[in-house]
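Hello, quick one for you while I still have it in my head. A protein chain has come my way and I'm curious about its shape. I'm sending you its amino acid sequence along with the C-alpha cells. I'd be grateful if you could look everything over and explain what you see. Here's the protein in full, and shout if anything looks odd to you:
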Amino acid sequence: MDILEHIQTGRDFDELCQKIGRYVNEQRKTASKFKIGITTDYNNRAEGDDYLLNGYDRMIVLYRTQSKERVCSMEQYLINRFKKYEECENIRRGGEGKLKWGPPYYAYLAMKTR
C-alpha cells in the first residue's frame, strides 16, 4: 500500500477539521471506496490484512496529535461528514476503536484507487 503523509497539526481544532475535511473531499473523488480511521502506527496499519485483502492501495495520513480525545473527535467528524457517500465504507461512527499505543495518534484516509 502506498502511504502519503499530508499530516496536519495545530491548536485550532475547528479550523483543522474544516481544512482536513476539504482535503478529504478532494481525495475521495479519486477512490472507488474509502475508509477513515485512527491509529498509533500507520505503517503497521497500512499493511494490515483487512485493508490489503480488500483492495485498498493508498493511505493518506491526515492528522497527528498527542491527544487521544482529539484524534477520536477528528475521526468522528470526518466519518459524519463523509458517510453520506456510497463510496464510504465506514460502518461505525468513529472514536470507539482501541488504540494500543501512543501518543502520537494519527487519523488517516484509506482508499481503493485501482
Observations:
- The CA atoms of residues 84 and 90 lie 10 Å apart.
- The mean pLDDT is 92.
- Residues 2-113 form one domain.
- The helical segments are 13-28, 42-46, 49-52, 68-82.
